[in-house]
Amino acid sequence: MKIILAITIFTLLLLTFACNQTETNQNSGRNMNSMNVNSTNSTIEAKSAKFKAEFKTNPTEVKAGEQTEFSFTVKNEKGEIVKDLPLAHEKPMHLLVVSDDLAEFYHIHPELQADGAYKIPFKFTNGGNFKLYADYTPKDSTQIVENYSLKVSGNERAKVELKVDEKSEKTVDGIKVMMKPDAELIAGKELMLNFTVFDEKTNKPITDLEKYLGEYAHFVIISQDLKQFVHAHPMSKMGDTKEKVDESKPHSHDDKVEMKDMKMANPSEVSAHTSFPQSGLFKVFAQFQRGGKIITVPFVVNVKEGDKKTVQAVENVNFPSDAKKVIVSKNGYEPSEVSFKKGEPMKISFYRTDAENCGDEVVFKDLNITKKLPVGEVVTIELKDLKSNEISFACGMNMLKGKVLSR
Asked: Least packed by Cβ within 10 Å: which of 85, 96, 308, 337?
């Protein structure tokens, strides 16, 4: 009798374990399927831990020739939805979509919806692998670019080999564009990419370019491996004015320049201040608008290897003992706020760690102070005669921002 009872109990235990194990495997299968769906939709590489854009597509499977909807929900570190993205070049978010061979390029702009997400409809012509770059700048944050990998089902076209252009001159849709860098293309080296736009028929500089997103041109630069993305900021050259303008200083569309008695030069000449973060092949997409049509002119360039010399670690940098230090990197100014007590000497030492940012100079606009910030050098600035308890400073592009507080 005892033997029969023991066998019965043992059998029940085996059945219970089997049921539990089956349920566990089913749950694991559901979790794994969910992970596969997410990884198919996107691979996110955020540049800032404070903000993250959750990307979804509707429908989940994206097919060539069928309309889908891109949706980006920006959340802060508390998981709260961020609905008030400031405008940058007239849009809260710029979305750049490229094929993995960089033959296809799209520049579109998701718009805020009632649910707090930024959405836009889109239709792919071809199937294949694509990369999406979402460019946005939350309030009190530096610029953020997140990238996502997306597989599009459907017929795929033949791959286009990326080759360096033999000439730095391209003709597209009635305009001829000449690109002339002001220095050799070397990884990590800052330079100006100068563009001149001509009419294809007359071969004369164009005088009727229209502003696109607040500027006469826009530039996007992407590496062949799709790992490096640069959204370069355009600068139109100024003509003769009654008040001389320092041409060596970058101008931002955010700066309020007094246009009285000022004559703009021909907008056919536009420049982009940038640097290439690594060596290898890059594709430069220059965008212009004429007659209401946006024209994209691509250039493929080869960037040489830069100096192998590395910048010394910040902890080994010799900062002046009587100055507050500010580190400048792709993360912006750290710290972004510098406080001084009343009567205390106001000295700030800036140290720029790399060239992967637009912080090649710092501008205290209200104090009429502009200083170059070479990579790997300490630059100390003394502030005097402050007329306010709060003074702002920024990079020349007005993308990196900070402030000085006097209490």
From this structure: 308
Residues 390-394: contacts with CB under 8 Å, at least 24 apart: 391/364, 391/366, 391/367, 392/364, 392/365, 392/366, 393/333, 393/362, 393/363, 393/364, 393/365, 394/362, 394/363, 394/365
Phi, psi of 63 (to 5 degrees): -120, 140
Query: What pTM was computed for the model?
Result: 0.69
SS3 call for 37: helix
**E strand or H helix at 137, and its extent?**
none
Q: What are phi and psi of 16, to 5 degrees?
A: -65, -45
- Rounded to an integer, the average pLDDT of 274-278 is 87
pLDDT tens track for 104-144: 999 999 999 999 999 999 999 999 999 999 999 998 787 89
> Shortest CA distance to 392 belongs to which of 400, 401, 382, 403?
403
For 188, phi and psi rounded to 5 degrees? 85, -5
Categorize the per-residue pLDDT at 311 as very low, low, confident or very high, splitting at 50, 70 and 90.
low
Which residue is listed with tokens 């017929």?
Answer: 155
282 vs 300: CA distance, rounded Å: 6
- Provide the CB-side half-sphere exposure for 353 (13 A, CA): 16
Q: What's residue 308's pLDDT?
A: 59
SS3 107: strand
CA dist 398 to 105, 255, 291, 357, Å? 27, 8, 30, 12
Instruction: Return the amino acid letter for 141.
Output: S
Higher pLDDT, 320 or 306: 320
Residue length, the chain?
407
Whether the Cβ atoms of residue 289 and residue 312 lie closer than 8 Å to each other: no
Least confident of 27-36, 200-209, 319-328: 27-36
